[in-house]
Write a structure and sequence with these properties.
- About 50% of the residues lie in helices and about 10% in strands.
- The chain is built from 11 helices and 9 strands.
- Helix 3 runs antiparallel to helix 4, helix 7 runs antiparallel to helix 8 and helix 9 packs antiparallel against helix 11.
Amino acid sequence: MSESSYQEITDDQKAIIEMVHQFVDEQIIPNAEHFDAKDEFPEDIVEQMKELGLFGAMIPEEYGGMGLDLSTYELIVEELSRGWISISGVVNTHFIGAYLLDKFGNDEQKQKYLPKMATGEMRAAFSLSEPEVGSDVQGIKTGAKKGDDGKYEINGQKMWVTNGLGSSLVFLLVKTDNDVQPAYKGMTCFITEKEPWVSENTGEYAGLVVPPKIKKMGYKGVESTELVYDGYKCPAENILGGEEAGLNKGFGQMMDALEVGRVNVAARGVGIAQRALELALRYSQERKTFGKPIAQHQAIQFKLADMATKLEAARLVTRKAARMKDAGIRSDLEAGMAKLIASETGKEVVEDCFRIHGGYGYSKEYEIERLYRDAPLLLIGEGTSEIQRMVIGKKLLERNKI
């Protein structure tokens, strides 16, 4: 087989990734330190992402999107995360909202929201976690009750909402039946509209308050917030899929979306690990000790070898999970594996890069310091490593019953 016949990605994918790679090198990496230091939303970068069509990457062409598959979107997320994972965070929750709408929304909901989401004019967030509920989604307390006016009144508090302030839509999982068992059978996903960049909503969106953003160790620039629903009125037609089709079906819808979300988080782990390896390879060939570049010391070479090998393994598992999802094959096991190996690899490769930099790695003068603060997020977001292991173990036994 000739070398030219080997292809990891298609020509179309290559063209898209080359465009995103250039955008990352020219616009994201040179500016990330500025936005990270000020914890400032990267408005200019986001506007350029809108122009590139990235907010509509997986939205069907009929609604103005690019109509890409998950495998291609995963490659885009790898590249964006190589630049700065906060940028991929701006897109990630939006992508999950678009996925929920495209798969479970009715025609009216798709026509109303997807065209504006494709251009980035309307950005989305999604929300499951609460102050006392993280991994145990069935324990959520936020509830919705239908009133005499036909609208549902939502009351409760949500936590860790990425894009919670700047979004126009929040895909919100709430309880609509407190008596049914198991509890997940009484949960509904509402498409709650809000005013972007407004802390206290008024008028038709009254009853939704966004407290000041949560201060974080890393993952800066993109806001993570609480959402407080207090008497917020949501029309019945804003139940995902419509009231008849979507009432009390929210848990399954959200878990389906998290499956693709885990591939997304895995891609972010691959991306940040790729950048850490690039930085380690460059620094180790520039830095000299004992009369030669530290890259010539066996101890450093062993680190580089382990970093590259872990990265390649994580990348392959992540791409497999994406391809399986695109093919319509059940991939909850593989998505869990991808999220587990890629998030752990991201953390480990970043730490090894940090060690290779020595004292300079602890300085804000070097990029690895930011990566070192950003990487731990991936171990927690959209299912901790411990939860992934639980999912993987359960699915393995289900698939291999004796």
